[in-house]
Amino acid sequence: MKIRQAKFEDAETLSQIAFAAKSYWNYPENWLKIWKDALTITPEFIEKNEVYLAESDGKVLGFYALIVENDKVQLEHLWISPENIGGGIGKILMADAIEKAKSFGATSMEIESDPNAEGFIKNKAR
After folding, report:
1. Can you tell me the distance from the alpha carbon of 126 to that of 122, in angstroms, rounded to the nearest whole number?
2. Which of 58, 61, 78, 114 has its CA 20 to 30 A from that of 6?
């Protein structure tokens, strides 16, 4: 597995992973429709932000996105494809996101997580 910066052409794949990962938690379909814009990763979003993905054998396994503003970094996305949830990829991506944030001079990272990720954020991302 390797982690690389996302390219414009990755936008559709990243959007599919975000939707699939959110759907994994059995949210009602109408809620997923409400979240459509928030879960859609556009080429413009990739251009304006720090977006990184994990891939193996050419397949994207998950990704994260950081929004950098001065010394503050916001973790905007961290999604793992459902077939890879529980395999440690999220922990690896979170550790990489933390290191990237530090490299940008961040003194803090804001994280708004899904209720289903609360255990991950508290226990695994340390």
Report:
1. 7
2. 114
What are the tokens at 47? Answer: 């251009």
42-60 per-position pLDDT tens digit: 999 999 999 999 999 999 9
Mean pLDDT of 1-23: 95
For the chain, percent of residues with pLDDT exceeding 90: 64
Domains observed in the chain: 2-124 (3.40.630.30)
Least reliable range by pLDDT among 31-35, 79-83, 98-102? 31-35
Any residues with CB less than 8 A from the CB of 112 and at least 6 apart, and which? 74, 75
* DSSP labels, 39-98: HPPPHHHHHHSEEEEEEETTEEEEEEEEEEETTEEEEEEEEE-GGGTTSSHHHHHHHHHH
Q: For residues 92 and 41, what is the distance between their CA atoms, to the nearest angstrom?
A: 21
CB neighbour list of residue 6: distance below 8 Å, 6 or more residues apart: 14, 46, 51, 52, 53, 63
